[in-house]
Specification:
The chain has about 400 residues and is an alpha+beta fold. About 20% of the residues lie in helices and about 35% in strands.
């Protein structure tokens, strides 16, 4: 009997334990089923960027970016912060961020120095500006041409922006397509602009020199007491002339001016009253001087052609263009160096190149041999001051070049 009772008690304990485990499992099942399902809430963020085009205002840009409901508030906030609405120029960038279709924040960047931020915070708009630390340092670079001036200057550790500025100083004196040779030398004394220790731009070129087979050219920047500034040679003569020597900066001439050249397409001998500059399609083409556009359109073998009338009875022609610059029309007055079109291969052309002609009194002339009058020299009453400025710059240049282990060629 005791044995039976003991067995029965053990059986009941096991039964209770099993029932208790089942109840616990059932409780968790019921509790799980009674809980409301959890949902993960996600925010849809969109970031749109826009580059300001000619004629656009911030108001029209906000309409394009579909923030009409916040336009008034954004403009009002920027007005209170002193935003320069009249200085919205082509090339500025606008970045707009929306969250679930509603305006979140906007960034308006004019340049590396001026950037505006508009943010929505708790239903209100705030405006902030970036105030980076800028520093300017004096620098110089010198070297020898090997292959091309462009490649040689880049090899010195500088960027293409400095190369272009240097070429602009001597644009009226040196044709960097035809006049440069291996072994030519260059020297530049200039300013570098840093933003938070990073190079962001180049400042004024105070002095430049290019020496080679084409000649020995000096460029001194000088501003007279009346505020007129320019680059002058050692004698105080302006480096500028009424016409540039070339309509594009870096290329090479594949065909020169000739009174008798065999045409590769027409298969016959005929005059070639111009120069053919070879460069990639889309290379920007600039007017060689200030003047008035007298022709813009298709002209037979020239393809797309632009003709410009300049002072002193000069006319320049630019043929085989792929397309014209925006807002270029007959009758428009253009500046020296202003964009007029892009290199192409239209008309009777065997490949991408610019056909450039220069006419004087209605007669085609060789652009490489024409003598162009200079811009005004330093005024006589300021010549002594210029000479003193020139000598002081040369002293400084010789000193920094010597300290750097480089020798500036003797004058």
């Amino acid at each position: 009997m005791p044995t039976e009772i003991e067995y029965t008690m053990i059986g009941l304990g096991t039964l209770y334990k099993t029932r208790f485990s089942q109840l616990i499992i059932l409780f968790f099942i019921i509790a799980g089923c009674s809980r409301e399902p959890e949902f993960i809430i996600t925010t849809i963020v969109t970031d749109t960027k826009h580059v300001v085009e000619k004629g656009e205002t911030l108001e029209t840009i906000l309409d394009k970016l579909s923030v009409a409901e916040s336009r008034v508030a954004i403009i009002s906030a920027l007005e209170k912060a002193g935003f320069p609405f009249r200085k919205c120029i082509p090339g500025d960038t606008v970045s707009l961020v929306k969250e679930d279709g509603r305006f979140s924040h906007l960034t308006y960047r004019q340049n590396f120095q001026n950037t505006y931020y508009v943010n929505r915070e708790s239903g209100y708009l705030t405006v902030a500006m970036n105030y980076p630390y800028f520093d300017t340092s004096i620098a110089y670079v010198s070297g020898t041409v090997n292959s091309t001036l462009y490649e040689s200057m880049l090899a010195s550790g500088e960027t293409s922006h400095l190369v272009i500025r240097f070429a602009d100083v001597f644009a009226w004196e040196v044709d960097f397509f035809t006049d440069t040779q291996d072994g030519d030398s260059f020297f530049i004394y200039f300013k570098k602009i840093f933003c938070d220790s990073a190079l962001v731009d180049y400042g004024l070129i105070s002095f430049a020199r290019y020496k080679g087979a084409a000649g020995d050219f000096y460029g001194f920047y000088y501003r007279d007491p009346e505020g007129h500034d320019d680059y002058y040679n050692q004698e105080g003569q302006s480096l500028r002339k009424s016409l540039l020597k070339s309509p594009l900066r870096f290329s090479y001439i594949s065909s020169h001016y000739s009174k008798r050249r065999y045409h590769p397409i027409l298969k016959r001998w005929r005059p070639h009253h111009g120069l053919d500059y070879v460069a990639p399609i889309g290379t920007p083409i600039a007017s060689i001087g200030a003047g008035k556009v007298t022709y813009r359109g298709w002209k037979g073998g020239y393809g797309n052609l632009v003709e410009i009338r300049h002072a002193n009875n000069f006319r320049s022609r630019y043929g085989h263009l792929s397309r014209f610059a925006k807002n270029l029309y007959v009758g428009k007055r253009v500046k020296s160096g202003e964009l007029i079109g892009y290199l192409g291969s239209t008309g009777l052309s065997t490949g991408p190149h610019l056909h450039f002609e220069l006419h004087k009194n209605g007669v085609p002339i060789n652009p490489l041999r024409v003598k162009i009058p200079r811009a005004p020299s330093v005024k006589k009453k300021y010549m002594d001051e210029f000479m003193a400025h020139r000598d002081s710059v040369l002293d400084i240049v010789h000193e920094v070049a010597t300290d750097g282990g480089e020798a500036l060629p003797e004058t």
